[in-house]
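Weekly puzzle thread! Below is a chain. First person to post its structure in C-alpha cell form gets bragging rights.
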Amino acid sequence: MKILCVSDQIDPLIYNQNAVKLFPDIDLIMCAGDLPMDYIDFIVSTFNKPTYFIFGNHNLSEYRYYHKNKTPVIAQYQMTSEIEGIQNGHGAFYAGFHVFRNHKLAFKDPLTGKMTPLLIAGVSGSIKYNNGLNQYTDKQMKNCLRRMIPSLIFNKIRYGRYLDILLTHASPRHIHDQEDPCHKGFDSFNWFISKFKPVYLIHGHIHLYDMRTERITKINKTTVVNAYAHCVLDFPQEPGK
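Winning reply:
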C-alpha cells in the first residue's frame, strides 16, 4: 500500500484540485501535526482514504474537542484505546494516545503469508519549552507511551508484532531534531522503537528549508520519516529498504 504523509505546511501539491491525479494510488494518509483542521478535512474529502492525525504544538484550536481537559498535565493520562472504527470530526481518526487495528487496511504479512490488519498508534505533542498546550517533558511522554503497552502486547500475541506505524509530531532525540528548546526530540521515542520495533515512526515538527536535508533514517528495524510538507511511503517496505 502507498502511504501519503503530511505535516506542518499546507502543501500546494496536496491542497490542489488535481491532487488525486498527482497521487493516484494512495491507500492511507498520516497527518503528523501542526496542520489546520480544514486542511485535514480537505484531504479526507479529496482522497476519500483512511486518514489519521495527531496534534503538534500549533494549530490547537480544536484540541479541546479531543481531550476532556485541555491542559498538558491531564492530557498525558488519556487512556489508550483499542479502536477499529471510531472516527471523530472531519472524517479522520484522531490517533493521539490511541492504538488502532485497521482491518480495512489488511495486508499479507511477508513473514507469515497471512492477512493481517495494519497496526497503528499515535501520540500528540512536542517537548515542553514554554508550558504551552500539548507540550510534555520526556518523563510525561514516556508515561503516555507506557499506557499503550497492554494493547501492544495483545498485538504481539495475536499478530506476531507490536506495531507497524507510530505517528508522532516530535522526532526521536538526535534523529532529525534540532538543539533549540522547541525542536528537541524525545529520548522516550528511542526507548519505544528499541522495544516495540514499528516499521515506521512518522513525525513532523522539523521544517525542511533545504529539501536536501536527510528526512528518512533507518534505526535498527524502524525507519524514521520526517513528513514535512509531504512524502510517500511504501508498506510493507520493499526488500532491502
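Puzzle host: Confirmed. Bonus trivia for everyone else. The longest strand covers residues 98-108.
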